[in-house]
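tool=predict chain=A
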Amino acid sequence: MDQNNYTSLHSFVLLGFSDHPKLEMVLSGVVTIFYFITWVGNTAIILASLLDPHLQTPMYFFLRNLSFLDLCFTTSIVPQMLVNLWGPHKTISYVGCVTQLYVYMWLGSSECLLLAVMSYDRFIAICKPLHYLVIMNPHFCLKMVITVWSISLANSVVLCTLTLNLPRCGNNLLDHFLCELPAMVKIACIDTTAVEMSVFALGIVIVLTPLSLILISYGYIAKAVLKIKSKASQQKAINTCGSHLTVVSIFYGTIIYMYLQPGNSASQDQGKFLTLFYTIITPSLNPLVYTLRNKDMKNALRKLVRVDHESTKLKRNQIHGKILPWIRQ
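tool=predict ok
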């Protein structure tokens, strides 16, 4: 086996933004900040919705899943990306690259489907409020989440396995900052039309089908909201659904532009920045979007901060209570 093939089998080189060294320094700071915001924001949502008894509803169950998914999604990308941005070596092991590829595709597909499930939850809550708790019972909600993760895993296994089986003829240079499926397809040394068509077909199933269901759900929701006589109830419904629609627009808009456009009309650098946006920026915005117009979540977060402050104060008093008598002695 020649050296090129050996290298290709054991590692990949992520070129990322290596053509722009100064940009790499700026990006490393930006990515670190947004990664921190993602962790703090999504962890706060998970803890607040778990601890507050008023948030033990299907809507917040799905929101917890979305926050957990966003944490996993960014963590599968950011640590390796920061290593590459900070250091001179841009390599990632073959096992690391394959793992990132499968996990990235799995979690990305899961978010597409989960957003559709969340829109169905809002549809039932607003259009069939009297039957909401009966239809969206805990068992059914759990089954839907398991289905989302299972379908997404199957999609990831099929697409990533097809891509990894393509011969690369020793080529291990990925013009990206992560092991992404289109970047892996590009380094193949044979005609990839069949694989690209498979990616496009499954992309329609995983991306456009859920998006269609979301739009249909919100069509019915809009009709129902207009019929609500109470202005307060109407405003609450608009705020709740508006947050979800904002997240849907940001996430799906970027995904469709990236993966479902004909040909390769976007430049490589443009594609990298778009990927950076929906993998790093969007997960950090989700907690902000869901809390800005949601009074219940705001109250739960205030309680969480208050409890944490009181716990810290109690510990401080306990420490002082133990230290002061010892000092007096």
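The CA atoms of residues 122 and 241 lie 7 Å apart. Residues 1-8 have pLDDT under 50 and may be disordered.
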